[in-house]
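REVIEWER CHECKLIST
Item 1: Sequence provided? yes
Item 2: Single chain? yes
Item 3: Sequence as submitted:
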Amino acid sequence: MIVPTFNEAPNIPLVVARLSQALSGIRWEVIFVDDNSPDGTAAVARDLACLNARVRCIRRIGRRGLAGACIEGLLASSASAIAVMDADLQHNEGLLPRMLEDIRDGADLSIGTRFAEGASIETGLSHLRQWSSRLATETAKRLLGVRLSDPMSGFFMMRRDKFDTIADRLSPAGFKILLDIATTAGRSIRIAEQPYTFGTREAGESKFDMTVGIEFLGLLLAKLTGDLIDPRFIFFAIVGTSGLAVHLVALKIALVFGLAFPAAQTAATLVALTSNFLLNNVLTYRDKRLRGWAMLRGFIAFSAIGAVGALTNVGLASWLYSEREVWWVAGAAGAVMGALWNYAMSTLFVWRAR
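Item 4: Structure as written out by the authors:
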């Protein structure tokens, strides 16, 4: 059992107690993968591990994200059947023996589904969450052709040998690890589903926010392009678009205060560059977030990369315009090339996310 956690300290003993009851007579272990929770979740898990040999804990420092935590935990287990569930107790651990039977009967993947006949989400999600979950499910099924009734589920069991064949192609960014597994494995994977009623959260707070939705769109984009585009890129593009708005606002303010246009443009460029760097540090690369002096070094590198990206942008656009005077094609091509350069180099050399 792999249980990713962040600020779930009160739930840890309850998870272990419920697993002990549900898996009675079955050899099992649980690995809590904690993203350095400030509430001491890892310490609670370690204390339990001292009393119960079935409990293990991985505390991740400087890394964040549910998908990455799941991948790390799954690879740390030597079990022939590996499963993922949340620590909020909304998943029905009583399904685990049936999911294990699915695996023993030949399924590669058994999923706890909230949307098949006999399942329900009414008690566990608000109306907004119900609507967004159903929308995401239908979007994934239509665009990616997945054969799951609940590709957004965070509750599933899988054969270890099957997981090992696709592990190096999974994205550690984002929250929807099951969707990534299903689309990466393709149609060769044998799937079983177990309906259940999604429960209410016992303690802690939901991790669902706008960034989860954006990460979902990023994962869709990655899978639609055959993993040609990294899921992070959608965040990078959004930040870059906001940077244009910041630049124009800063330019207008500088001109109002009487600066000459060259000086105002320089100031606006610096403000936009700083805004882009800070937002990328918080959003795009939040699992690799820079702090302290590393932020200063990162900003200098980000600025240097941005300068080269600008030259690439202008150079390509100018060449295209000289070949054929269609301004918007030349401008768009230059902007796209500059953005791809900035993203690739920032990922490699500023946040070292590859």
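Item 5: Key structural point noted by reviewer: The chain has twelve helices and seven strands.
Item 6: Recommendation: ____
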